[in-house]
Design a protein that fits this description.
Elements (H helix, E strand, L loop, with lengths): L1 E8 L4 E6 L2 H10 L6 H5 L2 E10 L2 H12 L3 H10 L2 H5 L9 E2 L2
Antiparallel strand pairs: 1-2, 1-3, 3-4
Length: 101
């Protein structure tokens, strides 16, 4: 399984990434260890907002890519409504993803 996640940073920016282990990856971001993303080293991670589960890396990466192309307002809407179909209706098949936890 692969997971696509969105983290809110202290400056209210939103970081999006993928992982195979959500707990490990969050520890890396929040502890700012050497495996932390460059972005979350500069923009301190504050809160895990949302996570989607996908069957494989290709699907997780596709979702990550499309989320990264969204405006801040669209990302906020996605976090609030948790509805991929509503925000990314023509770009992905939302049936390939399910909310994690």
């Amino acid at each position: 399984m692969y997971y696509t996640y969105m983290i809110r940073c202290e400056d209210n920016s939103i970081y999006t990434g993928i992982t195979t282990d959500v707990e490990r990856r969050m520890e890396e971001h929040f502890q700012k260890n050497k495996l932390c993303a460059k972005y979350t080293k500069r923009h301190t991670a504050k809160k895990l907002e949302i996570v989607w589960q996908a069957e494989d890396r290709k699907l997780a990466s596709k979702l990550e890519y499309h989320i990264k192309t969204l405006t801040k307002m669209q990302k906020e809407k996605l976090i609030q409504n948790q509805n991929l179909e509503e925000v990314l209706h023509n770009k992905i098949d939302a049936n390939n993803y399910k909310l994690y936890k």
